[in-house]
Amino acid sequence: MQETGYIKEKGTMKVMLKRNSGPWWEEIFKARDDRKKPEVEYMAGEGTHICNFKGRTIFADQRITETLITGWERVSTDVEYITLTTLGTDTTILKEFIDAAIVHNMAKDEDKIGIYELHRWGIGWTKVQSKKPRTLASVVLDKDLSSEIIADMKNFQNSAQWYMDKGVPYRRGYLLYGPPGTGKTSFTQAIAGTMKLNICYLNLSGNNLDDDGLNRALNDAPGNSIILLEDIDSLFVSRESVNKNRGRHVSFSGLLNALDGVRSQEGRILFMTTNHRERLDPALLRPGRADYHAFMSNASYD
User: Which secondary structure element, helix H or strand E, spans residue 216, and what is its range?
Assistant: First the structure.
């Protein structure tokens, strides 16, 4: 908020170990190096802070009212309240202050994409990471596949009215196929960064989803996102789930209905990857589920 004012701390400060920017499980399972000095971050603590904003003095009183144990992981969470006070009876300056704070916070992640994953119990999406996307130039291909897919995605995004007029479901699916290690996932990340879309990573190989849960997950996915479904060929053999004997699982018909059934989300962009397109059932390859097929080969000499 340097262009509009500054904040001068008068109250207390709290020091915390720097938060991990990756998924929550990395912090639990990663090996810690006790010889490395831990990084810390400083945040405003409880008390009153003086903020000079657009020539006005604003008092921000921050208080922790209670501590709750929340979530499936039973994590303790402080409930904090901030009371803003200024002289006068016009609240406009306080509204402008809040709006400037929101814009400032959003600007920090402006050049990053959000990575979302489904909660391990299948009950909603969680943003696990914000990361700087790969550039398209970092994914080297034999042909200009990136320009073709980006042009196709832009055409799709600009054609909502056409889909509505024709009565065609407004969804687009992309299938990236080819040998392992040819950059299918990296290419998806680069496309997402160029199109300024988030990525919702959907893992169907676990035992936390059934058919209804998959439908809800796709319908509740954050907007402005790509749904990424990796290694689709490893999930089913002859339309039978490889996980059918391990608790909850998604059936093949449930997957098809989720992709283009009557409950499917409109405007959705789906990316599927596979190492073996020949193993996929024809029902999964048809337009409406996989509209655009892109082959990504091993690197040639050129």
Answer: helix 211-219
d(CA 107, CA 95): 18
- Delimiting residues of CATH 3.40.50.300 domain(s) in the chain: 113-295
Computed on alpha carbons and rounded to an integer, the radius of gyration of the chain in Å comes to 24
CATH of domain 113-295: 3.40.50.300
Q: Return the residue matching tokens 């496309």.
A: 191
**Residue 160 CB coordination number (10 Å):** 12
The CA distance from 143 to 140, in Å, is: 9
Q: How far apart are CA 141 and CA 162, in angstroms?
A: 32
Give the length of the chain. 302
- pTM greater than 0.85: no
**Which residues in the chain belong to E strands, given as ranges?**
5-8, 13-17, 40-44, 47-53, 56-70, 75-85, 113-118, 125-131, 171-177, 198-202, 225-229, 236-237, 240-241, 268-274, 292-295
From CA 81, how far away is CA 272, in angstroms rounded? Answer: 43
DSSP 115-173: EEEE-TTSSSEEEEEEEPPPPGGGS--SS-HHHHHHHHHHHHHT-HHHHHHHT---EEE
| Per-10-residue mean pLDDT, the chain, length 302 | 47 62 47 63 76 88 73 62 88 90 72 79 74 79 82 92 88 92 88 90 75 82 87 73 62 82 76 90 88 88 76
What was the pLDDT predicted at 151? 92
Q: CB under 8 Å to 124, separation ≥6 — which residues?
A: 118, 220
